[in-house]
């Protein structure tokens, strides 16, 4: 599941589905949307995907193109691998086909905040339980507010606890090698510049503008993955 999905109801039944099960993409139904899919962990499949990525790349520059290339028989082999739209409903569809949402919306199990409209970009008033300002339809507002409500109920308390523990740890450490104000300012400026660059790249990805021949090339992504896995061991 993508990080921009929100589970509304229990979906344990998906574990009974076969590989590769997914929801048809709203833009091109002969392809599946990789925001949610069912697969079986397999070293052989992993190696096959890596080999295909290195040899052919991805036709859309992202994971969805690569996965659809690898599981190319998804649309024709077995209709049982086609999941219902309720497992990957996008906000765009609630607007473009509102009658269907009114008829089937109560059955939705997973919401996918596809595109540039992400809940964490919206301003939310926790005391009122509502968004401060929002340009969109009522259904979109409702789902984004549900995301925020779940975040404040289940996630925010854990973040506050971690911040409290981190603050107490920092207070308990007496660091004799504390950097000078000038070096600190330089470090902060460098970090801010890097953060801006990362944000710009992220926005480009959300709009489908990946630089997969440059900064977002397979080699660079593989290098980042190797470094992250190495640090975690």
TrEMBL record:
Reactions catalysed according to its record: L-tyrosyl-[glycogenin] + UDP-alpha-D-glucose = alpha-D-glucosyl-L-tyrosyl-[glycogenin] + UDP + H(+); [1,4-alpha-D-glucosyl](n)-L-tyrosyl-[glycogenin] + UDP-alpha-D-glucose = [1,4-alpha-D-glucosyl](n+1)-L-tyrosyl-[glycogenin] + UDP + H(+)
MF GO annotations: glycogenin glucosyltransferase activity; metal ion binding
Enzyme class: transferase
Localization annotation: Cytoplasm
Gene Ontology cellular component terms for the protein in this record: cytoplasm
Cofactor dependency: Mn(2+)
Region (Disordered) location: 173-201
Family: Belongs to the glycosyltransferase 8 family. Glycogenin subfamily.
InterPro entries xrefs: Glyco_trans_8 (IPR002495), GNT1/Glycosyltrans_8 (IPR050587), Nucleotide-diphossugar_trans (IPR029044)
One Pfam match: Glyco_transf_8
Function, as annotated: Self-glucosylating initiator of glycogen synthesis. It catalyzes the formation of a short alpha (1,4)-glucosyl chain covalently attached via a glucose 1-O-tyrosyl linkage to internal tyrosine residues and these chains act as primers for the elongation reaction catalyzed by glycogen synthase.
Protein name as catalogued: glycogenin glucosyltransferase
Gene3D superfamilies the record matches: Spore Coat Polysaccharide Biosynthesis Protein SpsA, Chain A
Chief location: cytoplasm
């Amino acid at each position: 599941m993508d990080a921009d999905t929100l589970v509304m109801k229990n979906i344990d039944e998906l574990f009974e589905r076969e590989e590769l099960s997914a929801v048809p993409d709203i833009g091109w139904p002969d392809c599946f949307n990789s925001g949610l899919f069912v697969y079986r962990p397999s070293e052989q499949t992993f190696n096959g995907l890596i080999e295909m990525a290195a040899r052919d790349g991805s036709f859309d520059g992202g994971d969805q193109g690569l996965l659809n290339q690898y599981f190319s028989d998804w649309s024709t082999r077995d209709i049982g691998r086609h999941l219902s739209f309720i497992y990957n409903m996008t906000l765009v569809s609630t607007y473009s086909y509102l009658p269907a949402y009114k008829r089937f919306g109560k059955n939705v199990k997973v919401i996918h905040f596809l595109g540039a409209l992400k809940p964490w970009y919206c301003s939310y008033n926790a005391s009122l339980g509502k968004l401060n300002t929002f340009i969109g339809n009522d259904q979109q507002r409702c789902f984004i507010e549900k995301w925020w409500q779940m975040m404040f109920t289940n996630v925010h308390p854990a973040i506050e606890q971690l911040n409290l523990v981190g603050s107490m740890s920092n207070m308990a450490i007496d660091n004799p090698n504390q950097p000078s104000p000038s070096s600190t300012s330089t470090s902060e400026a460098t970090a801010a510049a890097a953060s801006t660059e990362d944000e710009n790249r992220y926005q480009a990805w959300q709009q489908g503008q990946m630089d997969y021949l440059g900064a977002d090339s397979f080699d660079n992504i593989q290098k980042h993955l190797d470094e992250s896995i190495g640090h975690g061991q």
